[in-house]
Amino acid sequence: MAQDHDKHHANAMEDVEKSPTTTSGDFETEFTPAEQRKIIHRIDRRLVVTVGVLYCISLMDRTNLSAASIAGMTVELSLYVPYGTVSRYSIVTLVFFITYIIFQPPSTVIIRKIGPRIHLSAITLAWGAVMIGMGFVNDWESLAGLRVVLGILEAGFFPSCVYLLSTWYTRYDVGKRYSVFYILGSLASACAGILAYGLMQMGGLQGLGGWRWIFIIEGVITCVLAIGSFWMLVDFPDKAHNSWKFLNEREAKFIIDRVNRDRGDARIEEFSLAKFFRAGLDIKIWGYALIFFNTTTVSYALAYFLPIILMENMGFSVGAAQCLVAPPYAFAAIIMYTTSYIGDKYKTRGPIIVFNMILCLVGLPIMGFHSSSAVRYFGVFLTTAGANSNVPATMSYQANNIRGQWKRAFCSATLVGFGGIGGIAGSLVFRTQDAPDYHPGLYACIACSLLTLVTVASITIVFIYQNKRAARGEIELEDSDEDHQRGFRYTI
């Protein structure tokens, strides 16, 4: 009997490859509820925290231009000189997103081939080296060129993390995990201004300006964390038992069983280019991507221009503008986790996105048009909270409503790709010639928020209609050649 039991465990991973859906809870029943929670919390600490810390430096490294700009970079490199109809500063910010968008689709394929530990740690180490190089540029063209390279390297990070997290958690566990992942990035944005202000004080050391030390020191931090991440990152669930001192085979099988019972797509499908791009025929995927575009347009506009707006529009000093970025992002972290917790608990996604956009629609007019600087700063709180909270909310929305490994991979790539397009828009909406009021940029952000409401409403109507048809037995939702789980319903 014992031999049969051991043989059963030895063949556990082979069994899951053969059967995409497990009808029995063989492995789950071997763990008490307390043991199950302990396993999941271990995954949270190892996986969510590690990718969250890496996302901290990712977001900090791609958005520290605003801090460097008011620390002397714009003067030394003449970045506010017009280049055509836009400033050189806008060119430097947007060229990052060109390569960031182009190189995203292959990333979710590459991470499956070589594994998260090698893929994520290697590209993080490489872009840390690029950041250090930015501290030694002597003209704006060199800075723009390094931003292009940074876009290539960072392109593989965010979609890979979104995809990796979605493979580990069930649909109504993933919202809080996405929020913690992004909260760590938001807190990095909050602290980045304070850190940058401190690094500015190094100006003059070794004959380098303060803005150069911002790039150099933050690049060194990135490289150190990248090296450590090689040992901390974990693989996909089907290979997790091979990760050092993480999960044993039985525990990994328990995770795979949970995902299979929830949505039936834990089995690894053989890759084919046709299968990958076939997901693009589903119009809902482009709806999720449009929501993400609208969200990131606002969030990147704040990331790149908030210190400048605080200084030029609201009259704060350089030091105050650097430090006053922090409180709105701290408030955003609270709103982000609270709304994600509610979304997971009540199994809802669309209303959370609508609530966040309403915060933006209230905050943007206050931020742009009130006569008092203190009240306008209050509007910054609402806008920052709404825009940033919608990033994990949209990630959860799409993750809950698709099935299939390669469809999930394609959706992650397109979602983040449109987020990159939003980054281009966000880097252009606040133009130098519109200073100090920046009203056209505010109108653009308001339009994006309104478009999100329309898109969510349209998708919700489709979901309700399709769920009713599925309940009557007329169709099977999100069915495919590889997945044969019945009873899937869209999360509204």
From TrEMBL:
Name under which the protein is recorded: Phthalate transporter-like protein
Gene3D superfamilies registered for this protein in UniProt: MFS general substrate transporter like domains
Positions of the Major facilitator superfamily (MFS) profile domain: 47-469
Pfam families per UniProt: MFS_1
InterPro entries documented for this protein: MFS, MFS_dom, MFS_trans_sf
Region Disordered: start-end pairs: 1-28
Gene Ontology MF term list: transmembrane transporter activity
Chief location bin: membrane
Keyword Transmembrane: yes
Subcellular compartments: Membrane
Membrane-protein topology: Multi-pass membrane protein
Keyword terms of this UniProt record: Membrane, Transmembrane, Transmembrane helix, Transport
Organism of provenance: Lojkania enalia
Basic and acidic residues: compositionally biased ranges: 1-18
GO cellular component: membrane
Ranges that cross the membrane: 47-71, 91-111, 118-137, 143-166, 178-199, 211-234, 285-310, 316-338, 350-369, 375-397, 409-429, 441-465
